[in-house]
Amino acid sequence: MTRHRSTAANAERLRKYRPDIQGLRAVAIMMVVSMHCGILDIHGGVDVSFVLSGFLIGSQLLAEIDRTGKVSLSKFWARRFRRLAPGAAFTIVVVGVLSWIYASPFRFREYMDDGLAASLSVINWRLAENGTDYFAADGSQSPYQHFWSLGIEEQFYLAAPLVLVVAAWLSRTLFRNRILVGLVLLAVVGGSFHVGYTQTATNQPLAYFGTHARIWELTFGVLLALWAPFLSRMPRGLAAFVSWLGLGTALVTGLLITEHTPLPGYAVAGPVLGASMIIAGGCANPRFGAERLLDNPVFDFIGKVSYGWYLWHWPLLILWTHMIDWEFGYSDRFRVAVLSFLCAIAMHFIVEKRFRENVKLVVRPWRGILTGGTLTATSAVAMVVALQVPLNLSIGTAGTAAALTGFTGTESVEQAVRERNDPRISQSTLLKSPDDRGDHGCIDQLLVTSFTPYDECVIGDKTSDRTMVLLGDSHAYQWGNAFDSLGRKLNVKVVTVIKSGCSPEAYKITREDLGREYTECPQWRKTALAYIKKLKPDVIAVANRVQYTTVREGAEDTFKTLRATGAELVYLTDTPKPTFSVPDCLAEQSDHPAECTLKAETAVDLPDFRKLEREVAEEYGATVINTLPAFCADGYCPAVIGGHVVYWDNSHMTGSYAESLVPFLEPTFKQALAD
To answer: Residue 273's CB: how many other CB atoms inside 10 A?
Structure first.
């Protein structure tokens, strides 16, 4: 009788339906939407959702293993398909249509590639490979970017039942208990957390989006499900305290995380721990636990539509600026949140419920799998078809297109300013511009810590005995086509010594995408300068993006080192920096192309720091090339000069326009080589 009463008490505690989990699901989605929309800077909502998903899936799988000793993969995957595939497929296709209507034609192509990856549940790996900065605010975000977390979950759903069945069988065979299952789960949690923590410092995008660095959060939820019988025996007073402490931990740590916090790192452990404590405390069903707050009709309803709200809030947020005729303001944040919530409600009742509650799909799992697979395939095919659709460009016709002359003197820039209301450019040139990034020379990426010369680093006349070095960051790399042609014309080989985002001038740089000081830059710079000293070049050309962190001592230190090599020094002032993607603007503003012409007062930014760098270069004997006359005239910096699009993004000039600037550079470098 005592044993029976104990079992009954535990059964009462280990409930099949957990109102606190439904409420926590609502809290998680509200955290996500608030953070993304900029209403409240609170992070960790996705991490809370990962723990919830792991616990719920783990509970289902472990219960089935206890009953039958195995898992019906068809039933498990059918349930996942019925829940996830309809909403995801519908959202992916509709967002594709909205992107065609509102987004830039060039962005549309990129979006459809992302949509295809989202359909196949691998977009997290695509984002990691592209080095995506999730918190970037430069217009580079994709409306499908948020599918990264769903991709990780779906990859987890594919592997979890297989791993658990094998681990449970081995554990039961070898130990007659679940100890091996627990050890396997602990190993996954520990190993994945270690990978995520260490990789955040070396490859933050891979750590943020990589399944291997995030799977510990879902696995920790499964571990909670394994421990649920033990947790249910917790004293209810203690369980109530743990659940409230967990809610506070999730919210407070979420507020402490900022967009500058290295993520995932150790910071995501706060929301994960908080969610775990809420779930653990709720296992004992305490009367005065956090469930008293989480269990209410509002949270219950939000929890039901949370999946749709997650799917819709991000694409509407990204496309909203294209859909409105006014500047995005604070009130628009709430508009997006409310409209996406309404879309979620509509999709829940019109789309999701039709598949989740369909008796034929429930009774026959293979139908559920076939239906989900068909929906997934349909959305993927839709993205492939969209990629074949010709871009909707109306700017530039055969009658108005100019010859591709590029820069032919300052008069060509002045003419481009006069023609800014009707720039002469062909559609084919505009179509090629986003990919016209130059292909001469080499550039080391962010995490490289030392310069190593490769064959592709040598351009120009590769057989010449005379040597010139092009030193700098990506604003030096953008000159690659010009220096390749210049080197062949002046019979000098050009060695490109370039690192992304790394000014050759010695000062500290903090990168938001890394969430820390750019320590790889000074390490690389030291090796690069040592290489140049050993190379003993005839001429050193320095070009870099001007930054507000420039300090005179740093600039002097570098130019002093360069002068000591005995080479002639040439310093190219920084090129104008657009505040928008120029090809996108030209594609979107076909009726008002003048909107794409930069105003010099904003494009030629940081004038005080520009002046400082120029003064230091002259102080150490460098010949200064003022590049601005090749880009700007009469207070404007045209987007199109001599038939060429001048910039391929919001910062760098196209390779074709750079090549047209060889006559602009030649006199200075010809004299430097003679000297």
So the answer is: 18
